[in-house]
Amino acid sequence: MTEQNTQAKLKNLLKQEKIQLWNPPYTQEDNQPGDQHIQELAQRYAPFLNLSVAEVGGALESIRTQAVKRGKGNRTFRETSVATLELLLPRDAKKDPKRKNYMETRLDMPVQQLVDRITEEFSLKHVKLILNGRTLSVDKHLDEQGVKNHSKVMVLKVSDAEQINKEEEEKKNQNESIQRTQKGFQILSERDGSEDPDTTPFLEIADQKGNPLKIPHKEKKALILAMGFHEKGRSLMKRKQYDNALCHLLQADQQFSECGSALLSSVDNYAVLQLDIVWCYRALEALSCLEDGRSRLQRAEECFLKCYGEQQQRLLMIKGNTGREEVLFLRLYLLQSLLSYVEGNDCQARVLLSKVENLYGRLCPDSEKMAQLMALGFTEREARLGLRACGGDLQEAAIHISNRRQNRTKTGKMRMMMCYCWSTTLLF
């Protein structure tokens, strides 16, 4: 990550001075570096970056090498229609963590052929290919799905035989897992509540006050599928199975895209999904997917502001507190800070990180108060969320937790009376 930060800063400096490292005198006719001129640049830039001349020289050479390779790839593509793709491989498939991996291919070929080459060359058994946050369909051609020369393609490893032996509960590969999830939630999404409630379960969508919401059938179906995939993805994230989780989260994103913009701007589920996807990028060390990550975080922030209000006043009016939702902003600021740093914008990264630290200080519960609440019979999670919701006030937190327990008990009784009627709450 530090290397990405240094290179981003150097690229900005080079752009300002209109210096092209792939041209003479920085690159000679045989594509070898013009060492003297590179060294002069390193000596000039080192004080700006507070780095040694050797570190800056190494970063400049890396930028130069990439530029030369890109130029060569452009010529090859023009002359032969063979494109060069950058592969973002799983960590355990990289022979050299610092070395970028490329593959040459024609773009008018099915994705399955590229998958077969990748699995063979890098000794992987089952993979999915992701481009700009979308899963590539194996039965379609690369160019049909927006793959271009120099595209960055993320390679996700799905459950292989080795993983199945280690974890007996995961006896099916990822495709089957996704199909199972989709089938289950598709059944739910097609229920309209008109069947006999004593024998047939159905899913009801309600607002924060429990009032059923009228949503067009097509959007309701897509929304239920999206939330199902999202929940499955989140459970996989908790088990740190980020490859598998990301595939489910991207399926959720695809289903959310079937919903109208008015609905998406009214529910925070969609914003939380964007955070989870970028969190997986971070966990998979795929922050080179900057463009997609940046746009997702922007969508998340816009959605939070519409749902909660500029100062979260709408959320306060509905729920009476903002404790749980503030954790979402903490994650948002942390990821934004990380991306700013990778882009070389240290000033913005520091501002965002300061927000993270301040928010974390407010949200981190007092251990003594936690112990007192747990001594009253509350769980650790209840104590933590209660203190956050009540701004650290011990008595208010105890009352808040007790009220939530009573509400859950009432809700449970209502659900028993309704026989299998499942409801999901959205923020409208």
Automatic annotation (TrEMBL):
Superkingdom per UniProt: Eukaryota
SUPFAM superfamilies, sorted: UBA-like, Ubiquitin-like
Residues annotated as domain UBA: 364-404
SMART domains, sorted: UBA
UniProt-listed InterPro entries: NUB1, NUB1_ubiquitin-like_dom, SASH1/NUB1_homeodomain, UBA, UBA-like_sf, Ubiquitin-like_domsf
Family annotation (Pfam families): SASH1_Homeodomain, UBA, Ubiquitin_5
N-terminal signal peptide: none
Name the UniProt record assigns to this protein: UBA domain-containing protein
Lineage, highest ranks first: Eukaryota, Metazoa, Chordata, Craniata, Vertebrata
